[in-house]
TrEMBL record, chain A:
GO molecular function, one term: oxidoreductase activity
Keywords, comma-separated and alphabetical: FAD, Flavoprotein, Signal
Annotated ranges, domain Flavocytochrome c sulphide dehydrogenase flavin-binding: 356-421
Domain Sulfide dehydrogenase [flavocytochrome c] flavoprotein chain central, residue spans: 166-280
UniProt KW Chloroplast keyword: no
Classification via InterPro entries: FAD/NAD-bd_sf (IPR036188), FAD/NAD-binding_dom (IPR023753), FAD/NAD-linked_Rdtase_dimer_sf (IPR016156), FCSD_central (IPR049386), FlavoCytC_S_DH_flav-bd (IPR015323), FlavoCytC_S_DH_flav-bd_sf (IPR037092), SQRD (IPR052541), TAT_signal (IPR006311)
Official protein name in the record: NADH dehydrogenase, FAD-containing subunit
Organism of derivation: Roseovarius marisflavi
Segments forming domain FAD/NAD(P)-binding: 33-138
Coiled coil: none
UniProtKB/TrEMBL annotation, chain B:
Any coiled-coil regions, as ranges: none
InterPro entries reported for this sequence: Cyt_c-like_dom (IPR009056), Cyt_c-like_dom_sf (IPR036909), Cyt_c_1A/1B (IPR002327)
Statement: the UniProt record of this protein carries the keyword Nucleus: no
Domain of life: Bacteria
Signal peptide: 1-21
Full protein name: Cytochrome c
PROSITE patterns, per database record: CYTC
One Gene Ontology term of the molecular function aspect: electron transfer activity
Keyword Electron transport on entry: yes
Protein keywords: Electron transport, Heme, Iron, Metal-binding, Signal, Transport
Stretches assigned to the Cytochrome c domain: 25-128, 157-233
């Protein structure tokens, strides 16, 4: 996005005018138009709710490059064999057929906020009254020296699900007896805070069965991590002696990798490993930068409607947003999407706007039938999305509770994917 | 029993249930009636499958869903077709088993007396307070009276507001009513819904997510959700 300050002020003024008189939009060029970029937990949900609740009064276009979308949530369960890849794969047919959403499988490559258009890689231009970006994450370049996206087929991140998940699973299966699986964990903030540690659990679950003398090495720049007490208790009881975590005190912040000879250098100590799962530091998906709405790695947004701080007609959901207290999770993106859809619909059609409520719950699996969860409720304040109340599973819960928690996560998966894809 | 009469009886039972303070029937009398059943069915602590399946946790369970018991093909099909043992279905089944499941192996001709059935159901209900793996009781499980004030029960919910609020619920609960690890919340009688939500809010029901979710809902918001989910197509 090439937009100087003067142009932007002009755009802002125009936006303010349309906001105060939403009917003008409809008079100007038929139905109000919303373009959504990104078809994950945020984008698919916001598109579906806008189309569903406006009952055809809003023209909704969803831009998503992939025809099959693999959810990141439950992809660790796929690595452990608890679910198949097909079971976490979803398509956009229902959103198009049942809800009348114009689903475009293409890359968005440019955003002209002054002209209110989005350009696609295929050359098409889409005009919008409201633009909603839900682009997920990209990786910060050189976050882990020696690693780049070009090395992802040697040292997979598997932090966008699909072929990367398949690759990591195959590499684990091919590890030599007694070999080493290394994970380079990311610094905060990143997608799915318990994700790396659920993955460690799931890798341990596989290795315990097929390669019980193998080791897991976690190199972690963080002092603490999500659900730490629960994971460490589970690792101790299910995978005794298999997992070693190197935190910042022992060089976890000073790591580089060499994909050519499969070594990692931890604070000067070089270690040969058999699988190296590099989860680099993260930032908002690239289109957010192109649109010129980022500040640093993320996009500051207003809590009440997820609009960006710099442009009231551009909203950003999910992992890419710097919104306050919510973690970057699929559940959170889905929750933000519903608040955003209500606010955008209100702005465009005059429908009633209720106070924003947000929720998050993250389930993690430690071993067969050993599920744990953490969750919280949130509200919109002037400054941010602020936490109201929360809970977390307790250490030492009985097996029946843990099993019920796991089964609950399966129910949640069915619920949220139906809520996203119809 | 003629169908019309059965419908009337059920209407009476539901009316009694809605009044909330009244139990399904007299469970003590039901314990005596259960002696007719106990030749084949065990119930209570340590109950095991015998000629018939044990009857713990029966309310809210789909037909033929109890692992390890060899059900008739007819009963299995009923389960696949979606038969769930709620109050009205159990009442109909006990009244005339073959009317509901045509080739059931349960060799019982039926219990004509509506009061006796109600008493028996009240007794059976005692052993269904905690359906397996789901801490939430089914809407028909009228075993607990959490005494919500009448003026709260009388609130008329705004379904439009309920529809918006519902978007938080359907991140987990399926809008089509299917239940897989997370219970269905659609088509509950409104009063039951309101009572259940207030029981979470008061932390009488135990589930931490639901306590958190209900904890920040006002009386009006709970009524709005009950109105919306109760009236879904």
């Amino acid at each position: 996005m090439k937009l100087n300050r003067r142009k932007f002020i002009g755009a802002g003024a125009a936006a303010a005018a349309t906001l105060s008189a939403p009917a003008v939009l409809a008079d100007g060029h038929g139905k109000p138009r919303v373009v959504v970029i990104g078809g994950g937990a945020g984008g698919a949900t916001v598109a579906r709710y806008l189309a569903k609740d406006s009952k055809g009064a809003i023209d909704v276009t969803l831009v998503e490059p992939s025809r099959s979308y693999f959810t990141c949530f439950f992809s660790n369960l796929y690595i452990a064999g608890f679910t198949d890849l097909e079971d976490i794969s979803h398509t956009y047919g229902t959103l198009a057929a049942k809800y009348g959403i114009n689903v475009v499988h293409d890359w968005a490559i440019d955003v002209d906020r002054a002209g209110k258009t989005v350009t696609l890689a295929g050359g098409a231009q889409l005009s919008y009254d409201k633009l909603i970006l839900s682009p997920g994450i990209d990786f910060v370049e050189d976050a882990v020296p020696g690693w780049s996206v070009a090395a992802q087929n040697v040292m997979p991140h598997a932090y966008k699900a699909g072929s990367q998940s398949e690759l990591l699973k195959a590499q684990i299966a091919a590890m030599p007896e007694g070999g080493t699986f290394a994970m380079v964990a990311p610094p905060n903030p990143y997608r799915c805070p318990p994700g790396p540690y659920e993955r460690v659990s799931m890798v341990a679950h596989v290795l315990k069965q097929i390669n019980p003398s193998a080791k897991i090495l976690v190199i972690d720049p963080k002092e603490k991590f999500s659900k730490q007490g629960l994971f460490e208790e589970g690792w101790q009881s299910h995978y005794t002696g298999m997992i070693e975590r190197i935190g910042p005190d022992f060089g976890g912040t000073n790591v580089s990798v060499n994909p050519d000879d499969m070594t990692i250098d931890i604070d000067g100590m070089v270690e040969k490993v058999d699988v190296c799962n590099v989860i680099p530091a993260q930032k908002a998906g690239r289109i957010a930068d192109i649109a010129g709405v980022t500040d640093g790695n993320w996009v500051p947004v207003n809590a009440a409607d997820l609009s960006t701080k710099v442009d009231p007609d551009v909203h950003v959901l999910g992992d890419a947003a710097a919104q306050g207290d919510m973690p970057k999770s699929g559940f959170a993106a889905n929750s933000q999407a519903k608040v955003c859809a209500m606010a955008v619909r209100g702005a465009l059609t005059g429908s009633k706007v209720f106070p924003a409520k947000f929720t998050n719950t993250c389930w993690s699996l430690i071993d067969t039938d050993d599920g744990v969860k953490v969750g919280a409720t949130y509200e919109a304040t002037a400054e941010k999305i602020a936490k109201v109340d929360g809970f977390i599973s307790q250490n030492g819960e009985d097996a029946a509770t843990r099993k019920a928690t796991y089964e609950e996560s399966i129910g949640w998966y069915a619920g949220i994917t139906a809520d996203m894809f119809g | 029993m003629p169908q019309r009469f059965l419908t009337l009886v059920l209407a009476v039972i539901f009316a009694a249930g809605t009044a909330r303070s009244e139990a399904i029937g007299d469970a003590e009398a039901g314990a005596g009636i259960f002696e007719m059943c106990s030749g084949c069915h065990e119930i209570g602590k340590g109950a095991q499958d015998a000629i018939g399946p044990h009857l713990n946790g029966l309310f809210g369970r789909p037909a033929a869903a109890h692992d390890g018991f060899a059900y008739s093909a007819s009963m299995k099909r009923a389960g696949v077709d979606g038969l769930v043992w709620d109050l009205s279905r159990l009442d109909a089944y006990i009244a005339n088993p073959r009317a509901l499941v045509s080739k059931t192996r349960m060799s019982f001709d039926g219990l004509d007396d509506a009061q006796e059935r109600a008493d028996l159901l009240a007794y059976l209900r005692r052993f269904s307070d905690n359906p397996q793996n789901i801490p939430e009781a089914a809407p028909t499980a009228r075993g607990t009276d959490h005494s919500v004030a009448p003026e709260i029960l009388a609130l008329q919910g705004d379904p439009e507001y309920g529809e918006y609020l519902s978007s938080e619920c359907v991140s987990c609960h399926q809008i089509d009513g299917s239940a897989n690890g997370i219970p269905s919340i659609t088509h509950w009688p409104e009063d039951d819904f309101v009572v259940a939500m207030h029981a979470y809010k008061a932390k009488l029901r135990s589930h931490p997510v639901m306590q958190m979710m209900a904890g920040r809902l006002s009386n009006e918001e709970i009524a709005a959700l009950a109105a919306y989910f109760g009236a879904l197509d």
